[in-house]
Amino acid sequence: EISATFETCLRNFASEILPVMTGLLSLTAETGEIARPAHLIEAMRHGLLNGGKRLRPFLVVETASLLGGNRPAALRVGAALECLHSYSLVHDDLPAMDDDDMRRGKPTVHIAFDEATAILAGDGLLTLAFDTIAAPETALPDKARIDLVLALSRAAGIGGMVGGQALDLAAEKNAPGEEGVVTLQAMKTGALLRFACEAGAIIAGAPAGDLARLRRYGELLGRAFQIADDLLDITSDAATLGKATGKDADRGKGTLVGLKGQDWAVAELARLVDEATSLLSPYGGKARILIEAAKFVAARQN
Ligand code: GRG
Questions:
Q1: Looking at ligand 1, which atom is closest to the CA of residue 162?
Q2: What is the Å distance from ligand 1's center to 180 Cα?
Q3: How far apart are alpha carbons 133 and 152 in whole angstroms?
Q4: 196, 176 Cβ separation under 8 angstroms
Q5: Could you report the predicted ipTM of this complex, rounded to two decimals?
Q6: Which residues are CB-contacts of 271 (< 8 A; sequence separation ≥ 6)?
Q7: Would you write out the chain's pLDDT as a tens digit for each of its 302 residues?
Q8: 148: CA distance to ligand 1 center in Å?
Q9: Candidates 1.20.58.480, 1.10.600.10, 3.40.640.10, 1.10.10.10; correct CATH number of 4-299?
């Protein structure tokens, strides 16, 4: 089960990261900009600041902290990653993709504004992520900032999230087998979670061994996140049984839970948490919060 202390930690963290994200959307002298379209900024604020668990920035900051990284820098990199994650949600909700009206308990950006503005707000958030990491205010050595930009480009790009989304859309016509599902999920949702954990090691300037260990931890977390997400879809579909749409009925087909069953999924979640726990054992008590994070991801209810 999830510890109440961990949930409090995550909520407190969400309050800590909020002003950092808000700051990214306010005009500063350094950027040399003359003007910004106010309605576009409003739409970006709507997509970025309206709730969310802030799990990815939490992982950046906690993995950096485990390895002695600079906290203000980790907060900025975490905020950048949340900009990129929020962009993916804004675009995923568009009529051409998942066509959702609600996100994080509020109307989606294209409902609250309009479709063209939602596309641009997503583009703006994506670009802002890289601006934020590269900017000198992210007080890290040049090498670390370049490594972060490169790692995030790869996690978010054609070999990562965007490629995974394309495979997912293709899977609607041509159902993939187990291996195909694992690959597409590792790309679509796993890559950003893995980046979050490796970012902490890059920020801390950690040795290759720690980097590899945290990448692996991020991979395990990504798998657990996706299986938990598939289980949540099934339980939420069961809750709305009778008024299920065609889209709802399709869910589960292209997932590991759909292919291997709920009992397998529950056992696999426990196995992934165990593997994450032993992976982090060299760090002793310092890694406790990351072990709690793995348990939270496996057992989350939203
Ligand atoms: C449109 C380029 C593009 C990519 C979309 C990540 C993604 C790819 C789409 C999101 C669709 C979706 C609901 C995937 C399931 C996993 C997921 C990313 C859920 C949302 O993440 P949470 O639970 O959300 O961390 P919060 O709101 O807490 O940030």
A1: 2
A2: 19
A3: 10
A4: no
A5: 0.94
A6: none
A7: 678 899 999 999 999 999 999 999 987 656 777 788 999 999 999 999 999 999 999 999 999 999 999 999 999 999 999 999 999 999 999 999 999 999 999 999 999 999 999 999 999 999 999 999 999 999 999 999 999 999 999 999 999 999 999 999 999 999 999 999 999 999 999 999 999 999 999 999 999 999 999 999 999 999 999 999 999 988 876 666 544 444 544 556 679 999 999 999 999 999 999 999 999 999 999 999 999 999 999 998 88
A8: 21
A9: 1.10.600.10
